[in-house]
Design a protein that fits this description.
The chain is an alpha/beta fold. It has one domain: Rossmann fold (3-Layer(aba) Sandwich). Helix content is 37%, strand content 29%. The two termini are 19 Å apart.
C-alpha cells in the first residue's frame, strides 16, 4: 500500500513539473541533496530544522561544494532567504492523489524558505503520505483544534506557475522554479 502511495505521489508531482527522489536513510538523503545542489551550482542555501544526523551530513557537504548556509538567527534573514539559491524544508505530510506537499508551520521564516528561493527541496517521510485530500482533512483539523493562532498551512504542488503572461504557462514567477521532494525511509532508492 505505502509503495503504491509513493508511486502515485511521484507520478502526480511529475505531472506538475516537480521531481521526486527516494531515500532509505539520512545518508542517502544527504547524497541526493548534494547532487541537486552540485548540478545547479547552488552557492547559498537556507534550511529549516532537520534531524541531527542529516544536519551533520550536510555540514560536511556544504563546505566542500562551497555552499554558504544562511543562519536562521540572521538579522536580515528575510533578505538573505530572498537571495538564496535553494531552500530545504520538511513537509508535515503529502497527498498522493494530487502530488501535493503540505507544510504546516508556526514561523514565517520557515514558510519563506519554501517559497522564496528558486529551488525548493522538501523532505517527507514515506509514512506521512496520505492517499487523498479526504485523508488529509483530519490532520488539518488537528491544526485548527490545536488553538495555535499563527499556524500557516501551505499546499505545494510543483513549481510556482502562472498563465497571466500572454496566456502562456510560465513556471517560477512567484516562487520556486523547481520543486524536489525527497521521500525518506522509502523501500525504493533514487
Amino acid at each position: 500500500m505505502q509503495d503504491n502511495l509513493q508511486n502515485l505521489f511521484a507520478d502526480r508531482l511529475a505531472e506538475q513539473s516537480g521531481q521526486t527522489h527516494f531515500a532509505s536513510d539520512e545518508h542517502q538523503t544527504a547524497k541526493i541533496i548534494q547532487k541537486i545542489i552540485a548540478e545547479r551550482r547552488v552557492a547559498t542555501i537556507a534550511k529549516t530544522s532537520l534531524s541531527d544526523e542529516l544536519n551533520l551530513e550536510l555540514s560536511s557537504i556544504f563546505p566542500v561544494l562551497g555552499v554558504e548556509e544562511i543562519a536562521a538567527s540572521a538579522d536580515d534573514f528575510v533578505l538573505q532567504v530572498s537571495k538564496a539559491d535553494a531552500g530545504i524544508t520538511t513537509a508535515t505530510f503529502a497527498i498522493a492523489e494530487t502530488g501535493t506537499l503540505v507544510e504546516i508551520v508556526n514561523d514565517d521564516r520557515e514558510r519563506l524558505i519554501s517559497s522564496l528561493p528558486p529551488i525548493h527541496i522538501a523532505l517527507v517521510r514515506a509514512r506521512d503520505i496520505v492517499p487523498s485530500l479526504d485523508d488529509a482533512a483530519p490532520r488539518l483539523n488537528q491544526v485548527y483544534l490545536s488553538g495555535i493562532s499563527n499556524s500557516v498551512v501551505t499546499f505545494i504542488s510543483g513549481p510556482s506557475r502562472t498563465a497571466d503572461i500572454e496566456l502562456r504557462l510560465v513556471l517560477g514567477v512567484h516562487g520556486p522554479h523547481e520543486v524536489h521532494a525527497i521521500v525518506l525511509h522509502s523501500d525504493r532508492s533514487d
